[in-house]
Design a protein that fits this description.
By secondary structure, the chain is of the alpha/beta class. It has 2 domains: about 5-185 and about 305-395, Aminopeptidase (3-Layer(aba) Sandwich), CATH 3.40.630.10; about 190-300, Alpha-Beta Plaits. About 35% of the residues lie in helices and about 25% in strands. It contains 9 helices and 16 strands. It has helices at about 5-25, 35-50, 110-125, 145-155, 215-230, 270-290, 310-325, 340-345, 375-395; strands at about 55, 60-65, 75-80, 130-140, 165-175, 180, 185, 190-200, 200-205, 240-245, 255, 255-265, 295-300, 305, 330, 350-355. It has an 8-stranded mixed sheet, with helices on both faces. Strand 3, helix 3 and strand 4 form a beta-alpha-beta unit. Helix 1 packs antiparallel against helix 3 (about 110-125), helix 1 (about 5-25) packs across helix 9 and helix 7 (about 310-325) crosses helix 9.
Length: about 400
């Protein structure tokens, strides 16, 4: 029977290599659905480890099967995302992004490196566990419609269908050496809202000849603010926010239209649909009242992320075995979203957080910021813990 200490020894042995892999990925970030070189690099590493796989799944996605003894007995899937963000890095590190305006500011370089580390461990132990590990390196997590949808379309959840799937995400508020879990509803759905208020532009000195869409847009935003207040009274956590308004006029130029962009996030799929209708009805009624054309489009994004209670409870227990019970915490719900939710809607899943912060060393910046970084001791822990959890889940009835 494989022991925790065996996994920890193998994780420590690979630590410097996994850090080097992370440095390469961090230095060469690529945007969602453009991860050509990232995928090629990961594929090359898998081949060096002697692990067979397929490329070009759902775009630049990679899928493979790591078979232990009696491979048909059970299948556990492990997933990491690969894409970066359009952020200019401000960290002064030797592995700083070499691609202008792009950065691994959400830790997907860490996720991919840690999964490679876990697979290296699992490959060395494949004659000592039963079942199959399906591994998934996924493109496009940061951009709708989400790389998960493309990979699911291309059959990533079939042949074989995983009995469960787990994935981890960096989390600076948790110090390195810790992890966090939450069963049930964990992360919000996310939809994008696009509104265009149309008027009649012209010279500001000729008010009789214009219909100023800016004033109409301002009134509409006030009406939407009232709706936000109404929604806040619901029993379901809900966020409706508008972060971008473009009029594109000048001091004496009234534009023909104003665009308003926003986001809707909820923790209930039925309520989500209800709020869609409330927003559309409000805009339609307002358009009639103002006698102006107002177009609205709601792009349905990622669904709610639901952590299966049985798989999450077991995963948390195995994390406690690896880290110590005192180093595993319960997480609060998050109004952020994740396209891992598409998997969680189809098979039992657990999406957990791996601690990457270090206050003493100044590693405190959150994700999606130009100074985000991690304590790289987390790579050894993340690799080892994922390998341990995967093997334990394979052996659990």
């Amino acid at each position: 029977m494989i022991k925790v200490d065996q996994i920890k020894v193998l994780a420590e042995k690979s630590k410097s290599e996994i850090i080097s892999i992370r440095h390469h990925l961090h230095s060469h970030p690529e945007l969602s659905f453009h991860e050509k070189e990232t995928a090629a690099f990961i594929s090359k590493k898998l081949l060096a480890f002697g692990i067979e796989h397929q490329t070009g799944i759902g775009g630049y996605g990679i899928v493979g099967l790591l078979k232990g003894k009696n491979p048909e007995k059970k299948c556990i899937a492990l997933r990491a995302d690969m894409d970066a963000l359009p952020i200019q890095e401000k960290n002064n590190v030797e592995y700083k992004s070499q691609n202008e305006g792009l950065m691994h500011a959400c830790g997907h370089d860490v996720h991919s490196a840690a999964l490679l580390g876990a697979l290296k461990i699992l490959n060395e132990l494949k004659n000592e566990f039963e079942g199959t590990i399906k591994f998934i390196f996924q493109p496009g997590e940061e951009k709708l419609p989400g790389g998960a949808t493309h990979m699911i379309r291309d059959g990533v959840l079939e042949n074989p269908k995983p009995d469960a799937m787990i994935a981890q995400h960096v989390y600076t508020p948790l110090k390195v050496g810790t992890a966090g879990f939450r069963s049930g509803m964990y992360m919000a759905s996310a939809d994008e809202i696009y509104i265009v208020v149309k008027g009649k532009g012209g010279h500001a000195a000729e008010p009789k000849n214009i219909v100023n869409p800016i004033f109409i847009a301002a009134k509409l935003l006030a009406a939407l603010e009232n709706l936000i207040t109404e929604l806040s009274k619901a029993n379901v956590p809900t966020v409706l926010a508008f972060g971008k308004v473009i009029a594109n006029g000048a001091t004496n130029v009234i534009p023909d239209e104003v665009s308003i962009d926003g986001t809707l996030r909820t923790m209930d799929e039925s309520w989500r649909k209800t709020v869609h209708e409330k927003i559309k009805t409000l805009v339609a009624d307002f358009s009639v009242q103002q006698k102006n054309i107002i177009d609205i489009k709601i792009e349905t994004g990622y669904p709610c992320l639901i952590n299966d209670e049985k798989i999450t409870s077991a995963s948390k227990q195995f994390a406690e075995e690896f880290l110590g019970k005192e180093n595993v915490v319960n997480l609060d719900i998050r109004m952020a979203s994740e396209d891992f939710a598409f998997y969680s809607q189809k098979i039992p899943c657990c999406f957990y957080r791996i601690g990457t912060g270090n206050i003493e060393n100044g590693i405190t910046s959150s994700v999606h910021t130009p100074t985000f970084n991690i304590d790289e001791d987390a790579l050894e822990i993340a690799s080892g813990m994922m390998a341990w959890m995967a093997m334990k889940l394979l052996g659990k009835n």
